[in-house]
Design brief:
It contains 4 helices and no strands. The chain is mainly alpha-helical. Helix 1 runs antiparallel to helix 4.
């Protein structure tokens, strides 16, 4: 789970630096703004996809364990609640950051005003801060659910 925190911090940092790179026109290891935006966006998309797949996989496994061991089914509702809170915000942020990336290409080809890109970029960055907070809370809740499932399994095996 620590890897998710590292990836979230790294992807936020690269997107943030990419914004500064665009404003102040400097290169990072000979990568200009356009080249570095590919790297930061790909890292961001990978991070968000990995987090989504973690919650999908963990939820599926929790459901299987509950059904196989006849545990309290109320716990699975908490898993669904986590997904209902996290996935809409995460999906919206992926859409905003992806749109900002595409609009950046439009600005570079002079087909679009830079202010559209500015707006989407900063909206995506600010919304990403919110998403990171929601992801953090969701990871904590998911860990708590896994602990409770483990305790219920221990109790059922003792009996």
């Amino acid at each position: 789970m620590l890897i998710f925190y590292f990836l979230m911090a790294l992807s936020f940092f690269t997107i943030f630096i990419n914004g500064f790179q665009w404003i102040f026109k400097f290169n990072i290891y000979n990568a200009n703004y356009i080249s570095f935006s590919f790297i930061s966006t790909i890292l961001y998309m990978f991070t968000q996809s990995a987090i989504m797949f973690y919650f999908i996989g963990a939820g599926k496994k929790i459901k299987e364990i509950i059904l196989e061991n006849e545990l309290d089914k109320k716990i699975y509702q908490e898993v669904i609640d986590i997904k209902n809170e996290l996935f809409p915000a995460l999906t919206l942020n992926i859409l905003i950051v992806g749109t900002a990336f595409v609009l950046g290409g439009g600005v570079q080809t002079k087909a679009l005003s830079k202010y559209w890109h500015f707006f989407m970029f900063y909206l995506g960055l600010l919304h990403y801060v919110k998403v990171i907070v929601v992801q953090h809370k969701s990871l904590i809740k998911n860990s708590d659910i896994l602990s409770r499932i483990g305790m219920q399994l221990d109790e059922s095996k003792r009996q």
